[in-house]
Amino acid sequence: MAQPRQWVEGPRRGLIRGVGTLMWVFASMASAWASSPLPQVGATAQEALAKAPGPGKSTADHSKFKELQGPFKNGSEVTKACLSCHTEAAKQVMNTRHWTWEYTNPDTGQKLGKKTMLNSFCIGDRSNEAFCQSCHVGYGWKDDKFDFHAESKVDCLVCHHTGGYKKPAGMAGEVPTERTELPPGSGKFIDPVDLAMVARHIGKTSTATCGSCHYNGGGGDGVKHGDLDSSLDRATPELDVHMASKASGGAGFTCATCHQADGHQIAGSRISMTAADPHGPILRGDTVHAGRNAATCQSCHGDKPHKQPSLAVGLLNNHTSKLACQSCHIPSFARGGITTKMGWDWSTAGRLSPQGKPIQVKDDKGHVIYDSKKGDFRLGENVVPDYVWFNGKVTYTTQEDKIDPTRVVKINTFHGSPEDPDARIWPVKRFEGQQPYDKQHLQLLVPHTATPDDTAFWFNFDWPKALKAGAEATGKPFSGDYGFVKTEMLWPITHMVAPAKDVVACASCHTNAAQSRLGDLPGVYLPGRDHHPWIDRLGWLAVLGAAAGVLVHALARVMNRIRDGKGH
User: Fold this and answer.
1) What does the alpha-carbon distance between residue 270 and residue 394 come to, in Å, rounded to a whole number?
2) Tens of pLDDT along 130-155?
3) Do 83 and 282 touch, CB atoms closer than 8 A?
4) CB 207 within 8 Å of CB 257
5) How many CA atoms lie within 13 A of 78 on its CB side?
6) 390 membership: H or E segment, kind and range
7) Closest CA to 58 of 195, 165, 202
8) What is the rounded (10 degree) CA torsion for 343, 347, 350, 351?
9) pLDDT in tens, 519-544
């Protein structure tokens, strides 16, 4: 039987449904007052998490393989050794977005991916490949001549190392095998990586290996996503109940527990997301669920996750028809002690000291809030998300699009509406930027910033040169007349899941619009936030009627007892 949905119906749906809503709410509140705190996740899910296998022991000891004894001149030689046994691994990796940095959005047909997409952080990859590609799963991608078909260029170690391996920015994904000055002429040196030692101690992926790139997107720890930073490597249950260790009371998940791989294809995507998954949990190995995303909350917990038998639980489960799980179970992001960037203003970059040197300004906690290379930053910690209707479809502003500089340019647009059955209310990080555009061509520009030469902004602080070089690298025209436009970018919040005791309280949404987390978000009728005179009147009549019914029933029982007593 379908669960009641009246709590989300507006007044226009009819007074009868409104009365039903209020009666259901009052009954649920009565049940909740008479019982313990909010119900926990169902016992079935808890038992499954408790029985989840820990890291097993490999059947192969790679330290004994003669192929891995080295020495190795570079990372590609290690890959060749790996492929002598794992013959198909490179081919599998080369069919993934981790390798191509390209993706065609199935909903819009847009050609996307890190190689061509724009953002409000470092803005764009092209012309900056040698710097940005330190997070590529390959070696040597420094320009548009990179050979995407060379299997030896696949980097096996970046995902499977267990320590002692780092790909420094500026080396196009290569690793130093001797002491190296980086950047050249800077007087700063980095130590070599012992590739043979790393290769002999490889293992499964871990939060640290995934996080070495995904935590540091946008130029630093926690900068981009807000719900992904290095605090998850040492998560407490209060920070993330899934990723905290079992010893500390968490589930002991790694990234791969949810983002399962099949032939190196990783479940989950922020470009084409699964906003709604109204099904029961996936039984691992069951082909009935082929095609579903294994990285959704519902793939483990189902779409009716609250199990304790009570009216309050029924009401909570009804919320899943309009609310993403994350909206209640992630009360805030960037709450692991690491700040996230909420705003980035490139227009102020280039300010130098009286001696002509780049400067940094820090706040009273030591966080950089201005950098000559990048401009002003606005930081956030323990941030309450914004909330939007989202159906999983996202469109992006690219360099092909004309913009209106008199309005805020939306780098990405989350689609969805209250009437859309696939839409849910999702928590998001709303990031505000200010970045360069061409005033004549009305297109966003990608500056050349990071690779040392006489056109790189970080080394000459010359916007015209940097923007011209970036336009040439991206194949776009540059008029020489540039300015800075306000931009906005949304990032879905889906990590840092809090324990049940710390979920968003009912009153955080069911209150007046000025205080409600959902503000004036349309399309949902929230008792406590929304009012309609007739519904209010009929609701109070329903309450009085229920109270009168209870009194009449109680009086009847008393009279019956008196009568029965006289009869005996």
Assistant:
1) 9
2) 999 999 999 999 998 999 999 999 99
3) no
4) no
5) 29
6) strand 386-390
7) 202
8) -80
9) 999 988 888 888 767 766 777 788 88
